[in-house]
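Running this now, will post back.
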Amino acid sequence: MNDQPSKSIPKSIIQALPAPGWPPIQEDLASAAFPADKLRRMNLNESPYPPSPKAVAAMQEACTRVNTYPDPRWRHLTAAISERLGVPQDRIVMGNGSDESIVHAGRIALNPGDEVVVPVPSFPGYMKCAALGGAKLVPVPVRQDGANDVDGMLAAVTEKTRLLFAATPNNPTGGLLSADDVKRLAEGVPDTCLLIVDEAYYEFGIHAGGEDHLATLAARPGPWAVFRTFSKAYGLAGIRVGYTIAGSDEIAEAFQKARSVFSVNVVGQAGALAAWEDRDHMTSILDRTAEQRERIVAGLKALGCRPFPTVGNFVTAETPRAAKDVVAGLLGHGIMIGSLMAPGFETYIRITVGTAEDTDALLTALKAVLQG
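Update: finished.
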């Protein structure tokens, strides 16, 4: 018997992927000399505020029904989304966070040898989507204001391009696309390419004066979809509920075919529906986030850093030191932040907006780290 594992398992595409960049586990940070419950989590773009009390109550009630499978078509939740957004209910496809939608986009559109155009820096899931599909990644640097470079992305499209990801607001830079930007994407991306507009931070963009792009995209004859989530503005990152708004029945059916049957659990569906209906609570999260975001931006500038103009619940800034040293230094003060993985951004940090107390602690610690 041959004890050596076959070199074909795992398949070569999986073997070539980098090791997962898991977020630090609190229990592994004992060297920071801070108890896990005292660490300030300003690294994962989570809401520092709990979800609507109505959502919590709905999830508690739903826990009494977890012995049964969830509604595989999420009918109550998609009906509520459809009514507010004015899109057909059958074109709304729920998922286990919008991460799952990104995976499904690759399943739908990519074959080995295809190309995927993505903004850089942006969400790492786009890169993994391309790799798993055996496709070539075509990165396009963002503009100086942190928004996706639409002209550059359109210029990068070739006859092999089957998927293009645009993000607004863009994570990690926070830049918004204008209505004209999205119109040019809708008109310029060929019909042989699936255009994805990732709006995980949609509510923050609208709160900051951004525009809704569904009507603009609806005029596109080619395939498109928009991704949104309950993880950010609704404070429900832990229950993993996102959704796809498909541009046609055909694309909606493709996303349905690509998913697993029970992709959003009973508790998640109940919590998301209650959160969706409590708009006042969501607005309060947006208001408090905007206030602290501006405090962080001002504080970074005062310390000699150069933040991108952002409308998200995060701030990315160039610092006078290597990002890894700043991240490590802040961890020593019990504050977790992130750095950018893209080449050329070795001195950039990303900070999730937290509470007023988080902002106070961050700016005090950052001053000590940068000036120490």
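The mean pLDDT is 94. More later if anyone needs it.
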